Every structure is written in structure tokens, then in C-alpha cells.
Amino acid sequence: NAGVMQNPRHLVRRRGQEARLRCSPMKGHSHVYWYRQLPEEGLKFMVYLQKENIIDESGMPKERFSAEFPKEGPSILRIQQVVRGDSAAYFCASSPEQRLLSLFGPGTRLLVL
Amino acid sequence: QKEVEQNSGPLSVPEGAIASLNCTYSDRGSQSFFWYRQYSGKSPELIMSIYSNGDKEDGRFTAQLNKASQYVSLLIRDSQPSDSATYLCAVTAGAAGNKLTFGGGTRVLVKP
Question: What's the DSSP call for residue A25?
Fold first, then answer.
């Protein structure tokens, strides 16, 4: 029973490029949360999605960031025109129901050159 | 004002001693409280959850919650070098589902 999977584990992009981060929740989990951890800081909530719906995007930057969780396939966090300040670890967590504890994936470390 | 506050540390404790970590939160509507351990370069790992006032013990870990004081703590007894990590306090407000609000973390160093 695989846990939450994220890929790539490490991603290097140059300023202005696009970054696509993928999260495959645990089997049977239909709720996905994305968090960002800037260097030497705690995790910050970004967005909460259920299949095909964005439930809470209060933590998403207003520009360049978007997220989706299609009916089939992984959840995608997309960052357009990346800047150096986007360099961080991005963690995804999934849960089977809204009020049950979510489990974290291994994270994607994004480095913007 | 930060929603969840922790002393960043580092908290240095000798092996075998008790490590005491503190966390305060600002949202009185918070209903669930968690302690995560995070090793450098790794993802957070849940070590304790607590939902009601009082103490909860699990092995060498004890979580304490005081909702009136908006305070939650974690004690690590018989600290081991393998306990050296950053400990993150997190809370959820019931209406927000399972969205976690994290503190900045406390770095713990256990010296042999």
C-alpha cells in the first residue's frame, strides 16, 4: 500500500520557466492539501482540493500559482514564470475524508536559478 | 501576530534528559492539535495528536493541552540523539476541515 507520492523529488528551473509538481494521493484518498516550506521556516498551507474541485485556496499566491485535482490522475501544482523566491519544499498531504488526519508525501524541492 | 508560535531554538538537551517544547496559538476556535517531527530534508512525521485538555502520553512522548491558556506542549523523556530534529506544532480549526496551521518549529539537539 503505497503512501502519498510526489514527483519529481527535486526540480531545478531557471527564472521565468514553469514548474509542475505532481502529487498522487494514497489509494482511496480524495482530499489533497498542498503546503510550502520556505528555507528555515514552518509549513504554510496553500490549497485544499477534492476531486475536480478547489475547496480552499486561501494560501495560494494571487498570481502565477494554480492547482488542480482532476477526476483521473494526480493533483498538479503549477507555478508559472518562477522566481528565486519560489525556491522551497512543496509538500502534498492526502486524507480519505475532510476531518481525518492527512498523511504527508516526501515533498518536491524546487530550486530556481 | 503569528497564529501559532514556537521558540525556534535550538533547544540543546543532554542524552537521557527531558526535552520540553512549547507552543501557543491565537485562534480560540482551534480544535485539534498536533506535534510533527521533521528531520532535515524530510517530510513532517506525526508523533502526537491531542484534542482535549490535559495530558496524553505515548511512549516517551507526552503532549499537554490547555485551551484556556491557548497553550500546547510536548515533553520528550529519556531524549536520544535520534530525537534531534525540528518539532512542528500544528493546529486545525474544525470549520476548516483538516487544513493545518503550523508554527515555525523548534530545533532540538540531543547531545550524547
Answer: P
Is residue B13 a contact partner of residue B108, using CB atoms and an 8 Å limit? yes
Average pLDDT of the residues in B93-102: 74
Chain B residue with CA closest to A91: the answer is B43
CA-based nearest residue to A107, from A38, A59, A13, A31: A38
The answer to whether the CB atoms of B97 and A48 lie below 8 A apart is yes
Interface touch B100/A107, C-beta < 8 Å: no
Q: Is the pLDDT of residue B2 over 80?
A: no
The full DSSP string for A84-110 is GGG-EEEEEEEESSTTSPPEE---EEE
Cα nearest neighbour of B103 on chain A: A42
